[in-house]
Design goal:
Oligomer: single chain
Shape: globular
Number of strands: 7
CATH superfamily of the domain at 63-245: Glycerol-3-phosphate (1)-acyltransferase
Largest sheet: 7 strands, mixed
CATH architecture of the domain at 63-245: 3-Layer(aba) Sandwich
Strand content: 5-15%
Structural class: alpha/beta
Helix content: 40-55%
Number of helices: 8
Order of helices and strands: HHEEHEHEHEHEHEH
CATH class of the domain at 63-245: Alpha Beta
Strand order of the largest sheet: 1-7-6-2-5-3-4
Radius of gyration: 18 Å
Amino acid sequence: MTQSLSRILAQGRAMWCAAFIFLYIFVVGTPVLLHALLVKRVDLLYRIGWLGAWLALRLAGVRLQVEGVQNLPHTGACFYVANHQSNIDPPALFVVLPPRIALLGKKEVFSIPVLGAGLRLANFVPVDRANPDAAKETVEGALAYVRKGATFLVFPEGTRSPDGRLQRFKHGVFVLAIRAGVPIIPITVDGGDALMPKRKWELRPGTFRITIHPAVSTAGLTLEDRAALARRVRAVVASALPPNKRGEGEEIGTGGVVPGQPGL
């Protein structure tokens, strides 16, 4: 297959999957969201969201290869902390992780009709990366959810890697985990950079690998330990990546409490 034909097929697959997601959100998601708003329960909303993510991955030809399922906690709040290679990461992890996880995500996603309302109803938290003051208030809300038993998925790099290599970890999620006194579950994802590269409207079939590592405790830690905790978790995440993607020697972001802010 020529390179140009491969690119055309990848672009067509991306368009097809985007069309499916759009239709699924509005045709299936709208009535389910209205039902959730009326009954004040999100169980069905989560199930429909899970099904939509699973179907989208199937249509894209993405095969999930998961290791370390035994490391998933059965009860209690925690932070799932993963590296971020592509737009495949969130739906793939949503399918694999226990139900009722929430996400700290870019506020732009929450402006999408129906989807944004559903995310807010499910306690997903928008982060305004251009407004540190607003972002700090939002993260305080996330901390309150965690203290009530919620689990969050966070990408501490703050954005997708441009080349699949592990980037710097910002400190925000580690500050939150220490303040809440909950464990961190490191997760390594790999393969998304080849299947759906950043800044390219292309989607290719293939294997997406997920490694779930044992929990890292925050018991007894103080905020002064946040940098060491970030380094420890980053090293665990890097351990399941190929050597050329580990980003060895990169500095860890410093200071702050908000994931996704410059310098965190």
